[in-house]
Specification:
This protein is mainly alpha-helical. It has 9 helices and 2 strands; from the N terminus they run H-H-E-E-H-H-H-H-H-H-H. The radius of gyration is 21 Å and the shape is elongated.
Length: 176
């Protein structure tokens, strides 16, 4: 009840009401006045992603070394699982992405999008939606890192070379 929450947190009922309204708008609470009150909902994939993005943005300046460490752990595991579980349809999508990535007419935005898409497709090829969710929750930070990296000479060509090597291993089913 609002009264209990206000007392517990030492705030007014107005503050509780506004907080409940904000959390309900984000899909985190289910409000049923008179019929069970307010209940915590299981967060959706979008709300988890949004929360993680806000968390990463709030800690500016961001430590990209930490992001690279997490990215390495996620992406290596994702690639290994994709090698085990991928379907022919997954491989076709990855090959299509690689063809897009190897074009010479990339601007910064198309390079970043194609690179992010490659890793998202690998995560989808695990056939475990939690990998996609975890990767997507880091999405904005990963995009920013790739955005900045674009200015390093040869970045786009190296990314394509790495993606081609990863795809070859996934295609062969080589988990290692």
């Amino acid at each position: 009840a609002e009264r209990d929450l206000a007392e517990q947190f030492g705030v007014s009922r107005t503050v509780v009401r506004e907080a409940v309204r904000g959390l309900a708008a984000k899909g985190l609470l289910n409000v049923s006045p008179g019929r069970g009150g307010t209940k915590v909902k299981r967060p959706s994939a979008d709300s988890v992603t949004q929360s993680m993005t806000l968390y990463l943005q709030a800690g500016q300046p961001f430590d990209y070394e930490k992001l690279i460490e997490v990215r390495r752990a996620l992406e290596v595991e994702i690639a290994g699982l994709a090698a085990q579980r991928r379907t022919d349809a997954d491989l076709a999508l990855l090959h299509e992405n690689l063809t897009l990535g190897e074009r010479d007419d990339h601007d910064r935005e198309s390079f970043v999008q194609t690179d992010v898409d490659f890793h998202a497709l690998l995560a989808q090829a695990t056939h475990n939606e939690l990998w996609s969710l975890l990767l997507e929750s880091l999405g904005e930070a990963l995009r920013e890192g790739r955005w900045r990296g674009y200015d390093v000479p040869g970045t786009a060509a190296r990314a394509c070379q790495y993606h081609r090597a990863i795809l070859a291993k996934v295609e062969k089913g080589d988990v290692e």
